Amino acid sequence: MRPNIALLFLCVVLCCVSCNSAKNPPSEQASTSSTQRLTTIKTRLQSHLQTMQSAAQRLDSLTAGEITDTSRGRALQQAFHESHAAYKRAEWAIEYFAAQTAHEINGAPIDEFEENDKIVVPATGFQVLEESLFPKINLADSTTIRFNTRTIVSLTTRAQQVVKSQELTDAHVFDALWLEIARVQTLGVSGFDAPVLLTGVADAALVLEELQEVVQQYAPARKTSDSLDKAWKSLQTLFTRAIAECRASTDFLAFDRAAWFVGSVNPLAAQLKSLQAALNIAPLPFSSAFRAEARHIFDSAAFNVLHFAPVFARDFTAEQRNAQIALGKQLFTDPVLSGNGTRACASCHQPDKAFTDGLRTSAALTPAGKVQRNAPTLLNAALQTSQFLDLRVAFLEDQASDVVQNVDEMHGSLAEAVKRLSANKSYTQAFMRSFSDSSQTPVNELRIKQAIAAFERSLVALNSRFDRFMRGDTSILSATEKHGFNLYMGKAKCGTCHFAPLFNGTVPPVYLRTEQEVIGVPREAKTVNASIDADVGRFAINAYAAHKYAFKTPTVRNSSLTAPYMHNGVYETLEQVMDFYNRGGGVGIGVRGVEHQTLSPDPLRLTPSEQQAIIAFLRALEDVPQ
């Protein structure tokens, strides 16, 4: 689904922030006034957008005639590069203030299905053009090229209007800059938005150069505090270092992302927060996926788990929430919720197996039943916007009720569970404590779901050896594990679907949608002439042809502990999983009938040692709370 809710979300955010900024004006210690610097920033943005639009218009005019000669082809490609580079310089603001426009300009080249309206919206923008123009121009795509160049021209006009009407604040700017650094780390250098050209590292240099230019507007005056002067100088050094390291790399695949992240970019993001604090620019007050105190995306407490929860789950005190977690843990392990009183949530999500059950597909409640899918880990399940492998519900509360009522899983009834729990004095007292309800009826269906969801939201595990490496303990990973991460984010393309730092399919850095992919999982673990598994995935929910065999992109954190793999448990080892991807997914192993595989069918050409390095990295992501 296209993230239209992003615009509504941002409108609410900006209204709230404008009010807050009026009450808490930033420091005037910088060399220019707030009004002057914000005006300069807007003017600079408009200049980049004008360059972007002019290059797109030139590209459009070049496609008006036949593309038959080499010089015209080179001119087309050059115009693309100029327009795309200008967009990259404006990206930090367009992604922040006009999220839907940014998505249409530079989203993935895959048509999207509007679930509510049941319509297909064609992919548009730079990534569609990239496929038609590189490595050589596809003359058969001339109509597509012309349509997308005109679309970019139109979208740029829209972006210009947004920038013109936007009332910037210093708090907005710093928030947008920090998120852009996160975007570079999670999407840019993984190749997510330049999958053909693989210019992500060079683009990162462009982006960081622009961010440094924007920050120049906050240069301190000659007479200023030592803390501000120190924060400013340190930030300039980090910008220069991070940019130079990108410029020095001419090979996208060989770029040492591990060293760049831990040595330059994480400190850069943290120092940007330090400069913001030294300037007395208060963090924005609204709820986002990242906590305001997060220094960089790999901070131990970077994520705000309640960002992914429904609104009604957020308005509790810390004491109430802790009581709900304890109650939810008790319910999670108690078979009281099942129809025959023999099965609990923990039966299929066992703590000693990283909250999975170790089976290909979970055992049915009765011999006559059948559960067709593998039980996913619940560790970090709260940090995504959709639940179940077919993404059929958004919140953990709904996942809990779905499982309880499923005939083959628990075959229970929340209404019956309310009666049983209400008859138990210990439980009624626990519900009273958890929800501050001293009435005679503290137990209800919603609260049962809330308690279980509260417990599952406590299962956030982001303190693996890899995380500690990213926080500065550079001796904790082996050379092989670091190489594995670099391959994961580069040559193997894993990071274009399983996004760092959560390594799941919820798209950073705004985290408004969780992606699904068609990878062609086979029925049996064959490497030639394989047959597709019968489970149609998301297609069973929305009947959209391109979603046939589509499944949610899960986290690969703790994957070394959660075998077997895939929705049907077809692969027993990570070696088998790596081999599947290395061959090009389902198409690569001869599966037929997968018309919309979103995974590239081209072999990755990973050597055996490279595959083992990636597996070593995945093992460095192990983190099971005790």
Structural class: mainly alpha
The main β sheet shows up as: 2 strands, antiparallel
Write the element-wise H/E pattern from the N-terminal end onward. HHHHEEHHHHHHHHHHHHHEHEHHH
CATH topology group of the largest domain: A middle domain of Talin 1
Give the CATH class of the largest domain.
Answer: Mainly Alpha
| Counted beta strands | 4
Strand content: under 5%
Rg, Å, rounded = 25 Å
Rounded average pLDDT: 93
Terminus-to-terminus distance:
37 Å
* Total number of distinct structural domains: 3
Q: Bin the helical content.
A: 40-55%
Strand order of the largest sheet: 1-2
Number of helices: 21
* CATH architectural arrangement of the largest domain: Up-down Bundle
Principal-axes geometry comes out as globular
